Amino acid sequence: MSQLSTKSHTEAIMGLAGAKSGDRGSPNPCEACAVRGLSVCSALEPEDLPRLDRIVSHIQVSPGQLVFLEGDPADHLFVLTDGCIKLYKMLIDGRRQITGFLFPSDFLGLAMRERYAFSAEAVAVSALCRFPKRQLEQLLVEIPALERRLLGVASNELAAAQDQMLLLGRKTAQEKLGSFLHSLLRRTAPRSKAQDRIHLPMSRADIADYLGLTVETVSRCFTRLRKDGVVDFTTPQDVLIRDLGMLSDLSGVSDEY
User: Fold this and answer.
1) 135 pairs with which residues across the strands?
2) Structural domain boundaries of the chain?
3) 181 — phi, psi (to 5°)?
4) For the structural domain made of 172-251, what CATH number should be given?
5) How high is the pLDDT of residue 68?
6) Mean predicted lDDT score pLDDT of the chain
7) Which of 81, 84, 117 is nearest to 101 (CA)?
8) What are phi and psi of 253, to 5 degrees?
9) What is the pLDDT of residue 60?
């Protein structure tokens, strides 16, 4: 993938920004946010929400559209409120390694560097709250509970990176896919009414790039899981978990979530 110029990409994303919250006729839309209780914003007391709302803008991105590109100035941080975002890095030879998928309530852009170390691209139509980095950093100084919440996010990201190293380095293809599905089930359960179903907005190629497998291997593993009675499909994108115990055994973690 060729590098876009920082200026052109920043201008494109800035053009997607919605109106400021105060311009939409609502005194504090943060109070009505469907994912606030699961996001970093949950650390804020109701009286602090207007302070966050004053610095937030809202963007929507279409499938395949970049939120930011690796190497762009890291001027903003984001909370995903709807959709799905994939994170990836490009190797010099053009190969792509997907490093993660984000879902509603997930935080995006946390980094100590001046430029983003990876690219973020919409998998499905996605909506995000966008915060200027400098202004949010000032809020962290003023609201210690928000800073502690972000430190927790950073710790979770480190743990996820360690899990990804284990996934890529030690597990078989079947174990990799089982771990991936089990992880998605755990992450989406708090937001889902159906505790035994997973929606896969990403393509099989995306899953393969995340797991370090070929698309053909991913397809064979899905077929094996279905034949073994572990999963079934209501649509190609919707997975029904039929045997959570077997899925947990494949992933090597507890099925309690």
Assistant:
1) none
2) 6-161, 172-251
3) -65, -40
4) 1.10.10.10
5) 95
6) 82
7) 84
8) -130, 170
9) 95
Q: 80, 108 in Cβ contact below 8 A? A: yes
User: What number of residues does the chain have?
Assistant: 257
Q: What is the mean pLDDT of residues 111-130?
A: 90
Q: Which two tokens stand for residue 83?
A: 């959709």
Q: Per the structure block, which two tokens stand in for 255?
A: 């099925």
DSSP of 11-73: HHHHTTB---GGGGT-S-GGGG-TTGGGSGGGGS-GGGHHHHHTT-EEEEE-TT-EEE-TTSB
Cα separation, 98 vs 241, whole angstroms: 24
Of 73, 77, 39, which is closest to residue 55 (Cα–Cα)?
77
Q: Is the pLDDT of residue 176 over 50?
A: yes
* Residue found by looking up tokens 């009675």 in the block: 229
Least confident stretch, 78-92, 94-108, 128-142, 157-171: 157-171
Q: Which CATH superfamily is domain 6-161 in?
A: Jelly Rolls (2.60.120.10)
